[in-house]
Here is the input.
Amino acid sequence: MSNNLKRYFFDTEFLDPSADGFAIEFISLGIVAEDNRDFYGVYEGLDEQACLKSAWVKANVMAKLPEKSKWVGLDDMRRGIIDLIEPCDKVEFWAKNGTYDFYIMCRLFGGLSGLRDTLLQEKGIQNVRFCDSNDLRRELGYPQLPDADEADKHDALFDAQLEKIQYDHMMHLKNTPKP
Here is the structure.
């Protein structure tokens, strides 16, 4: 096993908490590795009717999903994520405003312990860290970042790719000597 750190950039799409205030309706997840390999999964068990009741989710998320024949179950989604991740000692998962994203990633594996145990058993990963790119942006004084048209956003894989582009830009700024 290589003794290094691997970074992955991801995004999820979901319907905000339901009427009970606790449950969210998971829709999709996109994750991109540092070398641009990726995985994208739309959850075949999503409550499509609930999602379509939200005008915003209907227009901005559901309209961008692939055909239903390409949607996958949770086992396939977990396998796709694990297959993407390479063995290392430490892994960082980066997301913007990532609280729900981190929660969903962990829930896919039965909770934080399940994710950590799976990564340790299957990839030898000792340390899992979740990072919010807004913290890095704040540290850098809120620089202007590469962006995309609003019409392209809210596709989990597209947003994960944009997350990586923005992270790379911020790291370039951070590592460029100041005059």
User: Anything to note?
Assistant: Residues 65 and 155 are 7 Å apart (CA to CA). The mean pLDDT is 95. The chain is about 40% helix and 20% strand.
